[in-house]
Amino acid sequence: MGEETPSDPALEVVASAARPLAVVAAAFEDISRMIDGDGEGPCDLRVAPFSSACSLVTVLFGCLGFAFKFAELEYASKVNDLIEASKTYNTLSSILEHDIENDNVRKQGSHSRNLRRVRLGLDLIKALFEQYLSSSDCSLKEAASTAYDQVCAPFHAWAIRKAVGAGMYALPTRDQLLMRLNETDASVKKEMEKYIDSSRPVIEYIDNLFLSRNINLDW
Q: Which pLDDT score is estimated for 42?
Protein backbone atom coordinates (compact mmCIF):
# COMPACT_ATOMS: atom_id res chain seq x y z
CA MET A 1 0.00 0.00 0.00
CA GLY A 2 1.19 3.54 -0.69
CA GLU A 3 1.81 6.17 1.93
CA GLU A 4 -1.20 8.12 3.13
CA THR A 5 -1.25 11.80 2.24
CA PRO A 6 -1.13 13.97 5.38
CA SER A 7 -4.45 15.70 5.89
CA ASP A 8 -4.86 19.38 6.64
CA PRO A 9 -6.08 19.88 10.23
CA ALA A 10 -8.28 22.80 9.20
CA LEU A 11 -10.00 20.68 6.57
CA GLU A 12 -10.61 17.93 9.13
CA VAL A 13 -12.34 20.48 11.36
CA VAL A 14 -14.78 21.65 8.71
CA ALA A 15 -15.36 18.16 7.33
CA SER A 16 -16.54 17.04 10.74
CA ALA A 17 -18.42 20.25 11.52
CA ALA A 18 -22.18 20.14 11.87
CA ARG A 19 -22.43 23.34 9.81
CA PRO A 20 -19.49 23.59 7.35
CA LEU A 21 -20.67 26.87 5.79
CA ALA A 22 -20.73 28.55 9.20
CA VAL A 23 -17.15 27.39 9.84
CA VAL A 24 -15.99 28.81 6.50
CA ALA A 25 -17.78 32.13 7.05
CA ALA A 26 -16.24 32.52 10.51
CA ALA A 27 -12.76 31.73 9.17
CA PHE A 28 -12.99 34.43 6.50
CA GLU A 29 -14.27 36.94 9.01
CA ASP A 30 -11.03 36.27 10.89
CA ILE A 31 -8.94 36.71 7.72
CA SER A 32 -10.67 39.98 6.82
CA ARG A 33 -9.92 41.27 10.32
CA MET A 34 -6.26 40.32 9.86
CA ILE A 35 -6.10 42.34 6.65
CA ASP A 36 -7.60 45.30 8.50
CA GLY A 37 -5.03 44.88 11.27
CA ASP A 38 -7.85 44.42 13.78
CA GLY A 39 -8.89 48.01 13.16
CA GLU A 40 -5.37 49.44 13.30
CA GLY A 41 -4.85 49.70 9.55
CA PRO A 42 -3.89 47.37 6.66
CA CYS A 43 -1.21 44.76 7.25
CA ASP A 44 0.54 42.03 5.28
CA LEU A 45 -1.52 38.84 5.24
CA ARG A 46 0.38 35.78 6.41
CA VAL A 47 0.35 32.70 4.21
CA ALA A 48 -0.39 30.15 6.95
CA PRO A 49 -3.74 31.46 8.24
CA PHE A 50 -4.82 32.42 4.72
CA SER A 51 -4.13 28.98 3.23
CA SER A 52 -5.73 27.30 6.24
CA ALA A 53 -8.94 29.30 5.78
CA CYS A 54 -8.92 28.63 2.04
CA SER A 55 -8.64 24.88 2.63
CA LEU A 56 -12.01 24.97 4.37
CA VAL A 57 -13.71 26.13 1.17
CA THR A 58 -12.88 22.79 -0.47
CA VAL A 59 -15.75 21.22 1.47
CA LEU A 60 -18.19 23.74 -0.03
CA PHE A 61 -17.15 22.69 -3.54
CA GLY A 62 -17.77 19.11 -2.45
CA CYS A 63 -21.30 19.99 -1.34
CA LEU A 64 -22.06 21.09 -4.90
CA GLY A 65 -21.50 17.55 -6.14
CA PHE A 66 -20.07 16.19 -9.38
CA ALA A 67 -20.70 19.37 -11.37
CA PHE A 68 -18.00 21.19 -9.43
CA LYS A 69 -15.59 18.28 -9.03
CA PHE A 70 -13.24 19.91 -11.55
CA ALA A 71 -13.15 23.06 -9.42
CA GLU A 72 -12.76 21.13 -6.18
CA LEU A 73 -9.73 19.17 -7.44
CA GLU A 74 -8.01 22.15 -9.06
CA TYR A 75 -8.73 24.43 -6.13
CA ALA A 76 -7.55 21.89 -3.54
CA SER A 77 -4.25 21.29 -5.34
CA LYS A 78 -3.52 25.03 -5.47
CA VAL A 79 -4.41 25.50 -1.80
CA ASN A 80 -2.15 22.59 -0.84
CA ASP A 81 0.68 24.29 -2.71
CA LEU A 82 0.16 27.45 -0.65
CA ILE A 83 0.05 25.41 2.56
CA GLU A 84 3.47 24.01 1.63
CA ALA A 85 4.67 27.51 0.70
CA SER A 86 3.72 28.73 4.19
CA LYS A 87 6.67 26.70 5.52
CA THR A 88 9.03 28.92 3.53
CA TYR A 89 7.25 32.27 3.13
CA ASN A 90 5.69 34.34 5.87
CA THR A 91 3.39 36.61 3.86
CA LEU A 92 1.59 36.58 0.52
CA SER A 93 3.63 39.65 -0.43
CA SER A 94 6.87 37.73 0.07
CA ILE A 95 5.64 34.97 -2.27
CA LEU A 96 4.91 37.47 -5.00
CA GLU A 97 8.19 39.33 -4.52
CA HIS A 98 10.17 36.11 -4.82
CA ASP A 99 8.38 35.09 -8.02
CA ILE A 100 8.85 38.57 -9.50
CA GLU A 101 12.58 38.38 -8.82
CA ASN A 102 12.75 35.01 -10.55
CA ASP A 103 10.34 35.92 -13.38
CA ASN A 104 8.01 33.11 -12.30
CA VAL A 105 4.78 34.98 -11.56
CA ARG A 106 2.79 33.52 -14.46
CA LYS A 107 4.74 30.29 -14.73
CA GLN A 108 2.70 27.09 -14.46
CA GLY A 109 2.98 25.76 -10.90
CA SER A 110 4.40 28.93 -9.37
CA HIS A 111 3.06 29.99 -5.98
CA SER A 112 1.90 33.32 -7.42
CA ARG A 113 -0.04 31.63 -10.21
CA ASN A 114 -1.60 29.24 -7.71
CA LEU A 115 -2.55 32.20 -5.54
CA ARG A 116 -4.39 33.68 -8.52
CA ARG A 117 -6.25 30.40 -9.03
CA VAL A 118 -7.21 30.17 -5.35
CA ARG A 119 -8.48 33.73 -5.56
CA LEU A 120 -10.71 32.69 -8.48
CA GLY A 121 -12.09 29.83 -6.40
CA LEU A 122 -12.97 32.16 -3.54
CA ASP A 123 -14.62 34.56 -5.97
CA LEU A 124 -16.55 31.74 -7.65
CA ILE A 125 -18.13 30.72 -4.34
CA LYS A 126 -18.86 34.38 -3.51
CA ALA A 127 -20.53 34.96 -6.89
CA LEU A 128 -22.53 31.74 -6.55
CA PHE A 129 -23.81 32.82 -3.12
CA GLU A 130 -24.70 36.26 -4.46
CA GLN A 131 -26.73 34.71 -7.26
CA TYR A 132 -28.33 32.18 -4.92
CA LEU A 133 -29.53 34.96 -2.62
CA SER A 134 -30.68 37.21 -5.45
CA SER A 135 -34.03 35.42 -5.70
CA SER A 136 -35.80 32.56 -3.99
CA ASP A 137 -36.78 31.38 -7.47
CA CYS A 138 -33.14 31.15 -8.63
CA SER A 139 -32.15 27.50 -8.98
CA LEU A 140 -28.68 26.35 -7.98
CA LYS A 141 -28.01 25.57 -11.65
CA GLU A 142 -28.84 29.15 -12.63
CA ALA A 143 -26.78 30.58 -9.78
CA ALA A 144 -23.77 28.37 -10.50
CA SER A 145 -23.90 28.91 -14.28
CA THR A 146 -23.98 32.68 -13.91
CA ALA A 147 -21.20 32.64 -11.31
CA TYR A 148 -18.99 30.42 -13.47
CA ASP A 149 -19.54 32.58 -16.55
CA GLN A 150 -18.62 35.70 -14.57
CA VAL A 151 -15.56 34.41 -12.73
CA CYS A 152 -13.93 31.39 -14.34
CA ALA A 153 -15.13 31.02 -17.92
CA PRO A 154 -12.89 33.84 -19.26
CA PHE A 155 -9.83 31.86 -18.13
CA HIS A 156 -10.91 28.39 -19.30
CA ALA A 157 -10.55 26.75 -22.70
CA TRP A 158 -13.63 25.84 -24.73
CA ALA A 159 -13.44 22.14 -23.83
CA ILE A 160 -13.49 22.91 -20.10
CA ARG A 161 -16.36 25.38 -20.48
CA LYS A 162 -18.35 22.78 -22.39
CA ALA A 163 -17.72 20.09 -19.76
CA VAL A 164 -18.69 22.46 -16.97
CA GLY A 165 -21.90 23.41 -18.77
CA ALA A 166 -22.87 19.77 -19.12
CA GLY A 167 -22.12 19.12 -15.46
CA MET A 168 -24.40 21.89 -14.27
CA TYR A 169 -27.38 19.57 -14.74
CA ALA A 170 -26.03 17.38 -11.93
CA LEU A 171 -26.15 20.14 -9.32
CA PRO A 172 -28.27 19.54 -6.23
CA THR A 173 -31.55 21.38 -5.69
CA ARG A 174 -31.75 24.24 -3.21
CA ASP A 175 -33.31 21.91 -0.64
CA GLN A 176 -30.61 19.30 -1.16
CA LEU A 177 -27.92 21.93 -0.70
CA LEU A 178 -29.50 23.08 2.55
CA MET A 179 -29.43 19.50 3.79
CA ARG A 180 -25.76 19.06 2.87
CA LEU A 181 -24.85 22.30 4.62
CA ASN A 182 -27.16 21.53 7.57
CA GLU A 183 -28.76 24.95 7.26
CA THR A 184 -32.26 26.41 7.03
CA ASP A 185 -33.41 29.06 4.54
CA ALA A 186 -32.85 31.71 7.22
CA SER A 187 -29.50 30.47 8.51
CA VAL A 188 -27.99 29.83 5.06
CA LYS A 189 -28.78 33.42 4.06
CA LYS A 190 -27.01 34.69 7.17
CA GLU A 191 -23.91 32.55 6.63
CA MET A 192 -23.70 33.19 2.89
CA GLU A 193 -23.91 36.94 3.53
CA LYS A 194 -21.11 36.60 6.10
CA TYR A 195 -18.92 34.86 3.55
CA ILE A 196 -19.75 37.37 0.82
CA ASP A 197 -18.94 40.34 3.06
CA SER A 198 -15.76 38.84 4.55
CA SER A 199 -14.34 37.33 1.35
CA ARG A 200 -14.71 40.56 -0.62
CA PRO A 201 -11.82 42.39 1.12
CA VAL A 202 -9.70 39.23 0.90
CA ILE A 203 -10.23 39.03 -2.86
CA GLU A 204 -9.54 42.74 -3.24
CA TYR A 205 -6.37 42.39 -1.16
CA ILE A 206 -5.05 39.64 -3.44
CA ASP A 207 -5.90 41.64 -6.57
CA ASN A 208 -4.08 44.66 -5.17
CA LEU A 209 -0.97 42.58 -4.47
CA PHE A 210 -0.68 42.10 -8.23
CA LEU A 211 -2.00 45.47 -9.42
CA SER A 212 0.27 47.44 -7.09
CA ARG A 213 3.22 45.74 -8.81
CA ASN A 214 1.88 46.55 -12.29
CA ILE A 215 0.81 42.96 -12.93
CA ASN A 216 -2.54 42.80 -14.71
CA LEU A 217 -5.20 40.23 -13.89
CA ASP A 218 -6.15 38.93 -17.34
CA TRP A 219 -4.58 35.50 -16.90
A: 63
